[in-house]
């Protein structure tokens, strides 16, 4: 009698894996609460969308702008991924990518195809009772006038449903149930162009470094209390300096996954140091002061970092003490 074959089951097969954890959540953190239309962030967006053609979430790096836009998008669509589309602008992004343009065919030649915006307009038009959401990340990285073309005027709430012609000559209109959410860094070079194009069409919501959000991260990660208190002091100090030097702003998301000394030091070594060196490149004394405040987070015994008093193996198997640098 042959043995019964054993079936291998993954965590997702059992409904306890990453796919299950992420369903209905606004981010890639399984411990995030489920998203609902009554969430204050979603309610604010709904109020703004009744008055403006879209919402731009603007703020320095690491403040959760994209997370916020995703959260609102999932709330407005009740988590229906088929009604949300994500696009990221960049300097080479063009009208043909976003609106409509010719695409090469595998068999040769070219064919006219709809871009993301026109595709979402048509999908929303066919399903007028439900919201469709287009999320544009890094709005200020592209040339908005070139990317949107003639559609820019018709994003306004007063001009929704009015027909206009695409560059191809096709007639189209922007339906009222198409929601546009965007993110941008207010210090990007293209912000002036965005302000000119979207200033009176879109609402702008400031997403700033949040001490409360940082405290929640620290409670979840159960970081040792002395380190947590030191980090909060540094966070307050550096963001106070950002009032006179906006490039120095440090968002709370930089610290969303720290849990010990090593992971906290890694944030500085591989991220914050570079951001702040650039912010204070004309003020070396200011950078040294910020760096000193960072080092003050750690107890004196940890000043040498995680390799202090580490041991290494000699070729013969003995141990030698690694001298402190």
Question: What does this protein structure show overall?
Answer:
The structure is a single chain. The protein has 325 residues and is an alpha/beta fold. It has two domains: 177 residues, P-loop containing nucleotide triphosphate hydrolases (Rossmann fold, 3-Layer(aba) Sandwich); 92 residues, no CATH class. It has eleven helices and eleven strands. Strands 2-5-8-1-9 form a five-stranded parallel β-sheet. A two-stranded antiparallel sheet has the order 3-4. A two-stranded antiparallel ribbon has the order 6-7. A hairpin with a 5-residue loop joins β6 and β7. α2 crosses α3. The chain is elongated, with a radius of gyration of 25 Å. It starts with 17 loop residues before the first helix and ends with a strand.
Question: TL;DR?
Answer:
The protein has 325 residues and is an alpha/beta fold. 35% of the residues lie in helices and 15% in strands.
Topology:
Elements lengths: L17 H5 L17 H10 L4 E5 L6 H12 L7 E5 L6 H4 L1 E5 L5 E5 L1 H10 L6 E6 L6 H5 L15 E2 L5 E2 L5 E7 L6 H8 L3 E5 L4 H11 L3 H17 L19 H19 L4 H12 L15 E3 L5 E3 L4
Parallel strand pairs: 1-8, 1-9, 2-5, 5-8
Antiparallel strand pairs: 3-4, 6-7, 10-11
Strand content: 5-15%
Number of helices: 11
Fill in the CATH topology of the largest domain.
Rossmann fold
Largest sheet: 5 strands, parallel
By secondary-structure content and strand pairing, the structural class works out as alpha/beta
> Helix coverage percent of residues?
25-40%
How would you state the average pLDDT, rounded?
A: 84
């Amino acid at each position: 009698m042959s043995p019964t074959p054993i079936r291998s089951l993954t965590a997702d097969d059992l409904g306890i894996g990453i796919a299950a954890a992420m369903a209905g959540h606004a981010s890639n953190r399984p411990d995030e609460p489920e998203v609902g239309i009554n969430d204050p962030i979603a309610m604010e967006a709904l109020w703004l969308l009744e008055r403006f053609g879209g919402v731009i979430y603007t703020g320095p790096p690491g403040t959760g702008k994209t997370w916020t836009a995703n959260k609102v998008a999932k709330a407005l669509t009740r988590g229906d991924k088929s009604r949300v589309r994500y696009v990221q602008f960049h300097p080479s992004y063009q009208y043909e990518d976003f609106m409509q343009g010719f695409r090469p065919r595998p068999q040769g030649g070219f064919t006219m195809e709809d871009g993301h915006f026109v595709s979402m307009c048509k999908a929303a038009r066919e399903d007028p009772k439900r919201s469709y959401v287009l999320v544009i990340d890094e709005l200020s990285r592209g040339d908005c006038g070139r990317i949107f073309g003639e559609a820019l005027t018709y994003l306004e709430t007063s001009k929704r449903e009015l027909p206009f012609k695409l560059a191809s000559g096709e007639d189209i209109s922007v339906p009222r149930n198409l929601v546009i959410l965007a993110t941008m860094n207010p210090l990007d070079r293209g912000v002036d162009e965005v302000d000119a194009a979207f200033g009176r069409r879109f609402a702008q919501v400031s997403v700033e470094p949040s001490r409360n959000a940082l405290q929640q991260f620290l409670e979840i990660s159960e970081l040792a209390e002395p380190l947590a208190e030191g980090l909060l002091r540094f966070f307050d100090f550096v963001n106070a300096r950002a009032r006179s030097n906006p490039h120095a702003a440090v968002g709370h998301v930089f610290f969303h996954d720290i849990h010990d000394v090593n992971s906290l030091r890694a944030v500085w070594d591989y991220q914050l140091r570079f951001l702040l060196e650039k912010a204070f490149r004309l003020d070396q004394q200011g950078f040294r002061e910020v760096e000193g405040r960072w080092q003050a987070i750690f107890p004196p015994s940890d000043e040498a970092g995680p390799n202090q008093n580490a041991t290494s193996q000699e070729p013969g198997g003995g141990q030698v003490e690694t001298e402190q640098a």
